[in-house]
Amino acid sequence: MKKFLSIMGLFCLLTQTQVMAQGPNRLENLGHQIFNDRALSEPRGTSCADCHVAKLGFAGNNGSKIGVTRGSKPTSLGLRNAMSNAYTAFVPTFHFRVEGDDVDAVGGFFWDGRADTAPTQAVLPFLNPLELNNKDAASVLQKIASAPYAKQFKDEFGQQIFNNPTLAFQKVGVAIAAFEKTPPLQAFSSK
Ligand code: HEC
């Protein structure tokens, strides 16, 4: 029995090491590259990672000192402070929790919960004039189609994906949301 247990223990350890050694999968890796790509703003030079900085717990203000974010244009100041996008994998869709007379708004993304899911949230900063300031989804997709990871994007979502801009833009959100679920954003460490 003892031997059986130690063999089981070894087996668990091996599987765990294997999972840890695997690193991000292709979709997560793609999301990571999009998240960090400074070519996806107008003018170029700002990425999601400039307002959601890993070492600041995935929050930050892109160099602004006044408590609200600076966007890709140096003169555009956001209306709110960037919130951390760590642990967003656990955010439920927006709803009201009613307990007796007590009504609480729960879930949803952004301070006011206005985006329902991580993939729908993730594409909105590209089009926000005070954030990445692209004029429309087509201009974001054009940049992605000529990015170093364009082939990876097509391998993941289909060789014809850029022929369907609505779907392609949704997939950008899917890739970013996959990255947002990876361990660096769910640290579970109080240190
Ligand atoms: C210019 C700074 C800026 C950039 C660039 C930016 N964000 Fe944000 N982000 C914010 C601010 C400000 C908020 C809060 C906005 C609000 O509540 O209206 C926010 C909120 C979020 C949230 C909501 C978290 C939650 O718990 O509800 C997520 C997720 C997020 N951003 C992801 C992204 C992604 C993905 C990108 C890139 C495509 C991005 N952000 C680019 C400033 C930025």
Reported for the largest beta sheet, the result is: 2 strands, antiparallel
Strands ordered across the widest β-sheet: 1-2
Content of β-strand:
5-15%
Shape: globular
Radius of gyration: 20 Å
Structural class: mainly alpha
Contiguous runs where pLDDT drops below 50 for at least 5 residues: none
The CATH architecture designation is: Orthogonal Bundle
Number of DSSP-assigned strands? 2
Oligomeric category:
single chain
User: What is the third-level CATH name, the topology?
Assistant: Cytochrome Bc1 Complex, Chain D, domain 2
Topology of this protein?
Elements (H helix, E strand, L loop, with lengths): L1 H21 L3 H11 L11 H4 L43 E5 L2 E5 L11 H10 L9 H9 L4 H8 L7 H16 L11
Antiparallel strand pairs: 1-2
Helix pairs in contact: 2-7, 4-7, 5-7
This protein binds heme C (HEC).
Task: Write structural notes for this entry.
With 191 residues, the protein is mainly alpha-helical. It has one domain (26-185): Cytochrome c-like domain (Cytochrome Bc1 Complex, Chain D, domain 2, Orthogonal Bundle). It has seven helices and two strands, in the order αααββαααα. Helix 2 (26-36) packs across helix 7 (165-180), helix 4 (118-127) crosses helix 7 (165-180) and helix 5 (137-145) crosses helix 7. The chain is globular. Bound molecules: heme C. Heme C is lined by residues 35, 46, 48, 50-52, 62, 69, 71, 78, 80-83, 85, 88, 91, 109-112, 121-122, 125-126, 131-132, 176.
